[in-house]
Amino acid sequence: MQLTRRMESDENLVDGQWRKIVPNLAHCLRRRLNSCDCRLCVDGCLFRALSVVTGGVELDCGECTLCGRCAAICPAGVFTFAGCDIEQQLLDWSVDENPLVSCYCGNRPGGRYGVDETGLPCLGALSPEAVVFLFLKKGALISYDFTGCSCCINQRPVTRFFRALENTAKLLGPHIGARFTVITDEKQLSDEIARGRRSFLRSLGRDVVRLMKKERHTTCRNHDEGRRLPAKTRLLRDALLSAAVEKKKELTAKCLPTITVEKWCTLCPRCTGMCPTGAVRLVKDEHKKKLMVDPYLCTSCFLCEKFCPENAIIITPAQLLTG
């Protein structure tokens, strides 16, 4: 079986320019802290398109297949797709009655559905946080279209995503009834095609969501000037905060990291200055200073843990990320 190379496919042309992954090294943890040895994206790339360089990482576009796995696993949100806003696409799907999660190979303008639909460059770009967001926002059935994946060069990263999808459903299922359908056969798409023809109804909801997103961006950034929350962390945070009260405790226990501050903490401000999201703060009341932590803002980047001279802060990653 011949595998198609995604970088050279027509669906990756946007206004005559090749779609590509764009790394913003200003956000890279290795640049924020010289001693940081994070290499999640490098080790996670199945095509060896990423390598460690001084002050960050380097992407070899000739080897990149646009699977988006780097974007899914990077805790700092370094990687984005030119011409594709993954966060906006997830918000669009969140207002669909029965969302069909697909990639450009099968879901492109004038393509399989005969309507102007959108999708992702690859399902491998979906993070566990994104999966949780869709599960929490959509009580209805979610369909994932894998019909073109068996002949795609990205079948390995997509397989990794599928395993993560199953694990997340098992993890959250007892609390929210998380369920999904995997579509691997063209014949299974008949219902989704019919839904696609009614897509103009969805556009009304999407316009509302875009307005909500604009307002959220305006208010969310106020939590701490100069701090930046990656899109996948922001989506997870918003979904968990809007979850039913009776389910929130169990969901946060499985989806959020644990930040432990040991009693020998000297309350120096190092960890607060190093944290890129504002998850760790030093606050002062009338009587004393204290270290405040917010797991909703924590990305498990471990910078605070690495930078603490007293080894007084410990990050335990969420069960969602560790399986």
UniProtKB/TrEMBL annotation:
Family matches, as PROSITE patterns: 4FE4S_FER_1 (PS00198), 4FE4S_FER_2 (PS51379)
Keywords recorded for this protein, A-Z: 4Fe-4S, Iron, Iron-sulfur, Metal-binding
InterPro entries: 4Fe4S_Fe-S-bd, 4Fe4S_Fe_S_CS, Fe-S_Ferredoxin
SUPFAM superfamilies for the chain: 4Fe-4S ferredoxins (SSF54862)
Domain 4Fe-4S ferredoxin-type: 55-84, 255-285, 289-318
One GO MF term: 4 iron, 4 sulfur cluster binding
Name of protein: 4Fe-4S dicluster domain-containing protein
